[in-house]
Amino acid sequence: MQVGPTLQESSSGEAVKELQRALQRAGFDPGPIDGKFGPVTAEAVRSFQAARGLVVDGIVGPQTWRALFETFYVHNGHLHDSSSECVVLRGVNKMAVWDQDPTGRNWFPQIRRTGANVVRIVWLMYTSGEPAATVSNMDKVIQNCRDNNMIPMIELHDATMAAEDPSTRGGWTKLGDIERFWTSDNVTSVLKKHQRYLLLNIANEPGDDSITDREFKNQYEKTIGAIRAAGINVPLVIDATLYGQKFDSIKNNASYLIGQDPQHNLIFSLHVWWHFGHQDAPRDFKKAIDYVVAERIPFIVGEFAGVCQGDPEKGVHCGNHNNDAPYETILEECHKNAIGWIAWEWGPGNEAGGCAEMNMTTNGTYGTIQPDWPNKVAITHRYSIKNTARTLGSFSKGYS
Fold first, then answer.
1. Is the pTM value of this prediction over 0.85?
2. Nearest-CA neighbor of 94 among 144, 168, 59, 53?
3. How far apart, in whole angstroms, are the C-alpha atoms of residue 149 and residue 117?
4. Which residues are CB-contacts of 212 (< 8 A; sequence separation ≥ 6)?
5. Are the beta carbons of 175 and 211 closer than 8 angstroms?
6. Side-chain half-sphere of 15: how many Cα atoms within 13 Å?
7. What architecture (CATH level 2) is domain 14-68?
8. In whole angstroms, what separates CA 346 from the centre of its chain?
9. Where are the domains of the chain?
10. How far apart are CA 118 and CA 199, in angstroms?
11. Which residue positions in the chain have pLDDT lower than 70?
12. How many CA atoms lie within 13 A of 144 on its CB side?
């Protein structure tokens, strides 16, 4: 929300609920989130004001409102930064943990040349055996992203890596390990260090088509609770199941999970790899957008490209078959509705998965952005990164 109305003891309503959630997020107990500004909430306000060096009067005016929002937060279905600026994500994915430059020191300045305001950073748990997947490197890659005035969205790819084992149900059984990783002391210290700018994508694409709505609700309610109990208050991004493609797992569960999060600070992410099961991918995407807008569900497209991976066993190779990768529709609909998107993937590296056409660059530099869909998405399309991304003012305000 923008700076809210002036509130004091005896105030009531939705603005008071927003205040109470913000106090709770900052570590000051306001009592029940009931929309009633009583003595407990007033004491929490005074304690917060004293801790932040503000005038201690128990009245919530513009300075107190601004001080309360120390992380990104969601309000009315949209993301805002700690200065209450509305944030529309425009950027790319980067498979940093497997890269020759795992901390992004060389590649992030190249990505930034597009005007991108976010990088979704592919990472792994330190138990993965990947040499670069250390907590120290995770700290550095987040910091380097920030240093280039881009929002770091860190995600764990371990569930995807396990998905080939049927016993994991598409990596779903890895969520317990992922929860323990995010809540371990050495990891939470890094997340708290960067919390003003950080988005946390809990896990990449966990769960196959067998995951029921009840299982989705129960597991994520548990994981959200554990992450919040560890003092992590940043927005949590939750991927759809079935390689991120199953919109129903968002449609049927988002509102419930938002209600269960003490911070009401969740974003839901769809990966538009619709090369099966969709007779008309552009039409189906528009229907998904219409739904999340109507229901005010905080929503992004976390992965998409101008091509989809094929199925070599069926003689289908990487490409855009029957417009199953409707990237221009994604650009247009997301722009129309102020919805964020993150393209897959800056490259190189996708050739290892048999789809080099997903590489937006040939060697990671701005000058090697490839023609056709990468060039359109990054630079030339009316709704490209270059033409629509906004750098947040908070990056120039010297926040640590």
1. yes
2. 144
3. 7
4. none
5. no
6. 14
7. Orthogonal Bundle (1.10)
8. 17
9. 14-68, 87-396
10. 10
11. 1-3, 66, 83, 275-278, 310-316, 321-323, 396-400
12. 21
CATH number of 87-396: 3.20.20.80
Query: Could you tell me the two tokens for 396?
Result: 């120039």
Paired tokens of 295: 């229901």
Tokens of residue 40, six digits: 């407990």
| b/e per residue 121-152 (b: at least 16 CB within 10 A) | bbbbbbebebebbeeebbbbbbbbbbebbbbb
| CB 152 within 8 Å of CB 145 | yes
The single-letter code of the amino acid at 363 is: N
Q: How far is Cα 67 from Cα 75, in angstroms, rounded to an integer?
A: 17
Q: How many CA atoms lie within 13 A of 399 on its CB side?
A: 22
Q: Do domains 14-68 and 87-396 have the same CATH topology?
A: no
Candidates 261, 100, 275, 239; CA nearest to 163 is 239
Cα–Cα distance, 316 to 311 (Å, whole number): 5
Cα–Cα distance measured from residue 103 to residue 106, given in angstroms and rounded to the nearest whole number: 8
Q: What CA–CA distance (Å, rounded) separates 28 from 100? A: 43
State the Cα–Cα distance between residues 294 and 400, nearest whole angstrom: 36
In the DSSP assignment, the letter for residue 344 is S
Residue 43 has what DSSP assignment?
H
Structure tokens at 191: 């997340």
What's the confidence (pLDDT) of residue 137?
98
Q: What is the rounded CA–CA span in Å between residue 358 and residue 331?
A: 17
